[in-house]
Design brief:
CATH architecture: 3-Layer(aba) Sandwich
Largest sheet: 6 strands, mixed
Strand content: 25-35%
CATH superfamily: P-loop containing nucleotide triphosphate hydrolases
Number of strands: 10
Number of helices: 10
């Protein structure tokens, strides 16, 4: 497997505060990679910087041989990276169908867009049933499905997800993680940050632990799931 995304010595500052302190990690094509860590560890800042929302203080973000630093969001989406933001951020006053079409706003290939719409409806039959409904009237779980569906409409090579399980009922969370696995099985590389470390590590091929802006541990999802210090810090298990 080849590296599709490579982060080197990434530093992110907000005013005088160093949120991310020179981290490096790779995302291999076709894999699920997760960053876990407490709130404020710098995980969201990392995703926001990769997607062009935040400009890094230094470091490089290499995607398929191209440096993304300095490019705007639209160029990064066009290149093939999309972000499903924390809190879903769907358009509440647009219908499900309009929300999905908004995800394809940079594309001109109408026939392919319709094909991808059918693909999203296959993944999320609930969205097909409710294509006419306003996004804001959907349940939290349905809004998360819509946010993922909208991201898929840009036909990403890498889909980044910021806390997809936040605020959802446990039963719904399982469904969202099943969908992440399915999307990955269909060829989309996933970079996931998630406070539910247990769920994230179970599906991740590779995992990194972030603490106060640094990567302190890395390994396979399974290795970190079985690591005693990780169990104690993030999985709520006492020795």
């Amino acid at each position: 497997m080849s590296k599709i995304l490579s982060i080197k010595d990434l530093q992110i500052r907000y005013g005088g505060i160093e949120a991310v302190k020179g981290i490096s990690f790779d995302v291999e094509e076709g894999k699920i990679v997760t960053l876990i860590g407490a709130n404020g560890a710098g995980k969201s800042s990392t995703l926001r910087t990769i997607s062009g929302l935040v400009k890094p203080a230094s470091g490089s973000i290499n995607f398929m041989g191209e440096d993304l630093v300095g490019k705007d969001q639209a160029a990064i989406v066009k290149a093939g990276i999309t972000l499903v933001p924390e809190g879903r951020r769907i358009f509440p006053d647009l219908t499900v169908l309009e929300n999905l079409k908004a995800g394809a706003y940079l594309r001109k290939d109408k026939a392919e867009i319709n094909k991808d719409l059918e693909w999203v409806y296959e993944l999320f039959p609930r969205l097909k049933e409710r294509h006419w409904q306003l996004g804001g009237t959907l349940s939290g779980g349905e809004q998360q499905m819509l946010a993922v569906g909208r991201a898929l409409m840009s036909r990403p090579k890498v889909m980044m997800m910021d806390e997809p399980s936040l605020g959802l009922a446990p039963l719904v969370v399982q469904g969202i993680f099943d969908i992440i696995k399915t999307i990955n099985d269909q060829g989309v590389t996933i970079l996931l940050i998630e406070q539910n470390a247990n769920m994230a590590l179970k599906i991740a091929d590779d995992a990194y632990v972030m603490e106060t802006g640094k990567i302190t541990k890395s390994g396979s999802g399974l290795e970190l799931l079985n690591d005693e210090s990780i169990k104690e810090a993030y999985l709520g298990k006492k020795k």
